[in-house]
Please model this.
Amino acid sequence: MSEDWKVLINGWANQIPMAKRFFVTASILRAIGQPEESSQLYSQAKESFEKVGDQSGIAKTLGQLGRLAEEQGDLELAERLYKEAHQIFERLGANPYLKLAKRDVQRVRRKASSHGEPA
Model:
């Protein structure tokens, strides 16, 4: 194996654990009420998942960013993020997160309409 391939493979292999660490840490921070820090780490997780092409990781992270936006009352952003996650899960096919993503979009639409916001 050439040196270039070794560097590429090692870089790729290191990104997956890093993305998962960012994701888990962000989830913990969200749970303990640190939304700004959580959002930053979810964004870093998304970037790491994008580098390795992990579509499921990207979609899960978008869903969590949507949940954060929803918790902070930004229903428009939440719906956009949930829709993006849902679209990725649809492309992936029979994915257990597809129904959840669809429910997230529907929930935030109901909230928006009950607050008089455009859906």
Notes: The longest helix spans residues 3-31. The radius of gyration is 16 Å. The chain is about 85% helix and 0% strand.
